[in-house]
Amino acid sequence: MQTQQMQTESAAPLMRLENINMVFKKPGSLFTDRNIHVLKDVSLDISEGEIVALVGESGCGKTTLGKIITGLYRPTSGDVYFEGERVSGTFDKKLSSYNQVQFIQQDSYAALNPVRTIYQSLYAPIKTHNRKWSKKQIDGRIEELMGLIGLQPSAQFLTKYPHQLSGGQRQRILMARAISLEPKLIVADEPVSMIDVSLRLSLLNLMKELNEKLNMSFVYISHDLSTTRYIARNGRVAVMYLGEIVEVGNIGDVIAKPRHPYTRALIQAVPIPDPEYKGNDELPLRSMQLGSLENRGDGCAFYERCLYSCEKCRGKIGFVKTDTADVLCCNLENVPRDPVYDKK
Amino acid sequence: MQSNTENIAEFRHISIDYPLKKYTIRAVTDVTFELKRGKITALVGESGSGKTTLASSLIRCISEPGRVAEGEIVFYGKEEDGIREIRADALSDKEMRKFRWNKVSMVFQAAQSALNPVMTVRQQFFETLDAHDSKLTKEQKEEKCRGLLEYVKLDADRVLASYPHELSGGMKQRVMIAFSLLLDPELIILDEPTTALDVITQNYIFNLLKEINRERGISMLLMTHDISVVAKFADYMGVMYGGRLMEYGTVAEVFKNREHPYTAGLIGATPSIIGDISSMHPIEGSPPDLMNLPKGCIFSPRCPKCCDLCLTAEPPTREFADGSKGKCYFFKEADHADAADAN
Question: How far is B272 from chain A (nearest CA, A)?
Answer without folding.
Answer: 5
